[in-house]
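seq as requested:
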Amino acid sequence: MPSESYLPVVMTLCISIFFAGLVSQLWWLAAVGAVSGVGVGIVWLWPLTQAGQREVPADV
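struct tokens:
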């Protein structure tokens, strides 16, 4: 069962910053939004061990 997360809201802010930078032609702002959006996406989609989404290696 999914747990509550604040990361979708943060992703929304990153996408908004990205498009605001594109519309205003502030390329550095668009780059900040894109890079931070990729970072948030990686953190958001990373499998969690405590949620049973990753295998824990057996002792050999």
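The chain has a mean pLDDT of 85.
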